[in-house]
Amino acid sequence: MRAQFVLSEIGVGLRRNLTMTFAVIVSVALSLALFGGSLLMNEQVNSMKGYWYDKANVSIYLCNKTDKANFPSCAKGAVTDEQKRQIKADLEKMPIVQSIQFETTDEAYKHYKEQFGNQPLATVVTADQMQESFRVKLKDPTKYEVISSAFQKRPGVQTVEDQKDTLKSLFNLLRYMNWGALGVMFLMLVVALLLIVNTVRVSAFSRRRETGIMRLVGASSFYIQVPFIAEAAVAGLLGGGLACVLLVCGQQFLVNDLLATHIDVIQFIGWSAVLTKLPLILATGLLMPALAAFAALWKYLKV
């Protein structure tokens, strides 16, 4: 098979169906960009979970003087010094506890002001309304229920809270967003595949005379199909290249220049994660249209 003939046929096919080829390139680029973005977002969520779950504590909030009417365990008023000493001593005896940190009302108020100081409610909250608490780090974060059952209804304890539950809601939201992006990606992928099939069929129909002559002189099905498959592969490869450009631009301008400079509490994934996804994007952009074209032509140009 002459390479020059195949290349010339690819050029002819792309020029004859320029509009549909452009639509294929854009559709493939968008679907693969969403695919790559979903992979990166999933990696980002896993990285955040590993980082924050390791730092998540179990917080044992103690009763203050304003909790008497709202919590049964605080019916006798604010926590006493003896109750605090006993709670700390019992925590230290538990083998699942790795470390214990006591937070005073002043420290809790300071942290509250740092997080919610710009909200109107922060202007009326005072330090004596905050709860003292024990921040307990566990050797195994899954053993939260052991702490909860031991201290939840204890006198002087307002409530026991696992910070991991709060983080779980955030990660679930990110997961749903990721699934939404995957759903849009599959929709765009279907559109791209339909466009590829139609483009190949139109290209084959416009060159039916040439392919008929090739049949008459004994050309094999594979020989006839190769230029059409190569056209789809080239269009897909261009779409994959455009998707890679979109991912690189997203990493630089959206993540590095915007999000990373305004959100300090999240360690965003770096260039290594992006660069490892680019070969997969290009390979998918090359193979997916080629296989779709091969399937479309299997019966259409079969000798």
From TrEMBL:
Keywords: Cell cycle, Cell division, Cell membrane, Membrane, Transmembrane, Transmembrane helix
Record domain ABC3 transporter permease C-terminal: where: 184-301
GO terms under cellular component: plasma membrane
Compartments it resides in: Cell membrane
Gene3D superfamilies linked: 3.30.70.3040
Bilayer topology term: Multi-pass membrane protein
Role summary: Part of the ABC transporter FtsEX involved in cellular division.
Subunit structure: Forms a membrane-associated complex with FtsE.
Protein name: Cell division protein FtsX
Organism taxonomic ancestry: Bacteria, Bacillati, Actinomycetota, Actinomycetes, Kitasatosporales
